[in-house]
Amino acid sequence: MSNISSTDYRPELGTRSSLPSALRGTHTQLIRCDIVFGMPSQDCRGTGICKLTSDLDQPPGMKKECRQTVAFAARSAEAGKITLLFFRELLCIDLFRRQFRNGVFEMPESCPLPGLLAEQLGVSGKTLLPGKYTITADGNCLTVAICCG
């Protein structure tokens, strides 16, 4: 496991993502999602997740900006949670420093979870709930299990 509490964390080039070990504790297929970081009330500025969409709802079409990225969603082994899997190499350094610092992912506000995505993941909640969530790093994979309500 890597220590990501430092903003200087940068995996070496050529390091392979440890996807199989990062997926421990998930119980469904991975679904590709586009994530815009920030708070809905602050026009997607700040920390947290402002908007989450999946290929189930609409085709991918995000432009590359520092406040958004691609992630993968899966049902967590913990009831009432989904796991979001991020790849370090897809995060710009500013986004990494702001959203993934000190090993904690902060969600000051809730974020709607698309109904079709919730259905495919088998979770009853339609909202990602605010809170402070532990980030687990394994190679170039960062995972966060977020409560749904």
Task: Describe the model.
The protein has 149 residues and is mainly β. It has one domain (19-147). Helix content is 12%, strand content 38%. It contains three helices and nine strands. It starts with 18 loop residues before the first helix and ends with a strand. The model is unreliable at 1-22 (pLDDT under 50).
The main pleated sheet reads as: 7 strands, antiparallel
In which order are the strands of the major sheet placed? 2-1-3-4-9-8-5
Overall geometry: globular
Strand content: 35-45%
Order of helices and strands: HEEEEHEEHEEE
Would you tell me the structural class of the helices and strands? mainly beta
Q: How widely separated are the two ends? A: 30 Å
- How many beta-strand elements? 9
Number of domains: 1
Continuous helix count: 3
Mean pLDDT: 80
Into which percent range does the helicity of residues fall?
10-25%
| Poorly predicted sequence stretches spanning 5 or more consecutive residues | 1-22
Rg over alpha carbons = 14 Å
